[in-house]
Amino acid sequence: MKTKMTFSPKKWFALALGLILTGMVSMQAQSHSYSADDSMIALEGYSPVSYIYNGKAQLGKKAFKTTYDGMTYYFVDQNQQKKFQANPKKYQPQYGGWCAFAVSLGGKFQPDPKSFRVIDGKLYMFTINLEGDFVKVWEKEGKEKHIAQADKNWKSMGKFTTF
After folding, report:
1. 109-151 pLDDT tens trace
2. I want to staple 125 with a disulfide (CB 3.0 to 4.6 A). Which of 4, 20, 28, 111 is the partner?
């Protein structure tokens, strides 16, 4: 015997509301665009803790990885992994890991994981290309000015075009 499924307007509304809320939650899970390929590996596998504490770019190991905000982070050792897990926002690169200089100009460029600066405990990544070293221009023109402009731009950029 076949039964016919019918949905009342209340059931349709509840279903639609559920789908909308599910979509909103998944959109909030990753609050901004990140500088990563489809693998969703942050910083091309370099340890964010190494940048801040050691002042150098060090490739992390697969044995020490953590996922946060949809991105996978690799660390040099378990100690770094625990530091990150205790306070992930402290170690995340500014502007989703995109080139800080480009964001200050309203664009989004892939950074070179070996081109960075740590300022006031925050990690800023930069692009190096045939045109020049963006970190040098950023510093020459005034990093404070560029940070202020990038902070302002980043609030309104959302998921914007990659160059």
Report:
1. 889 999 999 999 999 999 977 677 888 888 899 999 999 999 9
2. 111
In a domain, 17, yes or no: no
How far is the C-alpha of 28 from the C-alpha of 134, rounded, in Å? 31
Residue 55 CA to residue 162 CA, distance in Å, equals 28
For residue 50, give its domain range: 33-89
Asked if residue 28 belongs to a domain, the reply is no
Q: Is residue 12 part of a domain?
A: no
Residue 65 in domain: yes
At what angle are helices 143-157 and 134-141 packed, to 10 degrees? 110
